[in-house]
C-alpha cells in the first residue's frame, strides 16, 4: 500500500487531474454510474454486450465484448479476452475466493481481495481511489507475453495489448484511469489500469510497453513516477 506522506491526502486538499469527456464515437451512448465505475461486462453468447460506464468517461460498444472509451485526449480500445487465455500474471491464485477465471466470468474483480504467492491484497475503495496519488518506481511489461503463443488476459478480463496505454496496479479498483508522470523528464500520460501487479518490492505500477515508450523509460526499464487517479469531469 502507499507509503509516502503525499499519498491519500485529505479529500478537501486532494488535487488530481480533471478531464473533460468527448461525444461518444458510436450511436450507442451508455449510462452513467459514478466517477470510477467504469467496469464493463460482456454477455457471452447472447450477441450483445452491456457496459457500466463512469459518468464522465465516454464509452461506446463497437461489437460483442468490445468498446472504445475516450478520456481527454486518449482513446482506449477495450476488448474482452476469451477465458481460455492465460493471465498476464499467472501468479494470481484467487480473486474474491474464486479461481481467477470464475471471478472474471462473474464480474467480481473490481475491488475484490486477491491472493498472489500466498499473500492477500485488498484493493482500495472507490473513495480511497478518488484521492489516491503516489510517488515511486514504475516498470513496464509486455515482451514476456509477446514471446508466448496466443493472447493473454488481464485480471480485469480484458485482452492484454502492449501497444495500448494500460497498466497494472496492486490496489486501484479495476478498471481505473490514472495519470502517470515521469519525474525524470516531465512527460505525462493517462493509462487504463486493468491488471494486477507489479509483484516486485519497491515498484508501484507496471505500465504497458507503449506507455513506457511514451514516458521515455522503455530502454531504462524503470523510472521514478507520480501516479494520480483521475476524476473525470464532463
Structural write-up:
- There is one protein chain.
- The protein has one domain: RlpA-like domain (Barwin-like endoglucanases, Beta Barrel).
- Helices cover 9% and strands 35% of the residues.
- It contains 4 helices and 16 strands.
- The chain has a 6-stranded mixed beta barrel.
- A hairpin with a 2-residue loop joins strand 8 and strand 9.
- The chain is globular.
What's the helical proportion of residues?
Answer: under 10%
Number of strands: 16
Radius of gyration: 17 Å
Average residue-wise pLDDT: 78
The amount of beta strand, in percent, is 35-45%
Output the CATH homologous superfamily. Answer: RlpA-like domain
Please describe the structure with a list of short key phrases separated by commas or semicolons.
234 residues; mainly beta; Barwin-like endoglucanases; six-stranded mixed β-barrel; three-stranded antiparallel sheet; 4 helices; 16 strands; disordered N terminus
Element layout with pairings:
Elements: E1 18-20, E2 40-43, E3 48-51, E4 58-63, E5 66-71, E6 74-79, E7 92-95, H1 100-105, E8 114-116, E9 119-121, H2 126-130, E10 133-141, H3 143-146, E11 166-168, E12 176-182, E13 188-195, E14 203-208, H4 209-215, E15 222-229, E16 231-233
Parallel strand pairs: 1-16, 10-14, 11-13
Antiparallel strand pairs: 2-3, 4-5, 5-6, 7-8, 8-9, 10-15, 11-14, 12-13, 12-15
Brief summary:
This protein is mainly beta and 234 residues long. It is 9% helix and 35% strand.
Amino acid at each position: 500500500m502507499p507509503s509516502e506522506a503525499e499519498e491519500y491526502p485529505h479529500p478537501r486538499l486532494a488535487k488530481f487531474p480533471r478531464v473533460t469527456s468527448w461525444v461518444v464515437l458510436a450511436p450507442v451512448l451508455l449510462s452513467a454510474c459514478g466517477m470510477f465505475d467504469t467496469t464493463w461486462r460482456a454477455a457471452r453468447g447472447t450477441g450483445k454486450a452491456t457496459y457500466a460506464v463512469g459518468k464522465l468517461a465516454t464509452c461506446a460498444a463497437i461489437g460483442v465484448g468490445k468498446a472504445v472509451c475516450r478520456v481527454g485526449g486518449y482513446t482506449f480500445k477495450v476488448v474482452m479476452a476469451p477465458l481460455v487465455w492465460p493471465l498476464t500474471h499467472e501468479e494470481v491464485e484467487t480473486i474474491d475466493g474464486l479461481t481467477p477465471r470464475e471471478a472474471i466470468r462473474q464480474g467480481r474483480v473490481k475491488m475484490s481481495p486477491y491472493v498472489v504467492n500466498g499473500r492477500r491484497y485488498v484493493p482500495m475503495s472507490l473513495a480511497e481511489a478518488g484521492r489516491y496519488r503516489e510517488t515511486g518506481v514504475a516498470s513496464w511489461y509486455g515482451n514476456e507475453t509477446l514471446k508466448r503463443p496466443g493472447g493473454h488476459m488481464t485480471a480485469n478480463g480484458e485482452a492484454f495489448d502492449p501497444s495500448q496505454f494500460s497498466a497494472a496496479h496492486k490496489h486501484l479498483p479495476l478498471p481505473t484511469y490514472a495519470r502517470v508522470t515521469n519525474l525524470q523528464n516531465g512527460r505525462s500520460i493517462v493509462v487504463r489500469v486493468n491488471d494486477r501487479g507489479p509483484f516486485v518490492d519497491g515498484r508501484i505500477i507496471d505500465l504497458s510497453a507503449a506507455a513506457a515508450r511514451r514516458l521515455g523509460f522503455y530502454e531504462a526499464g524503470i523510472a521514478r513516477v507520480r501516479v494520480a487517479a483521475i476524476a473525470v469531469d464532463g
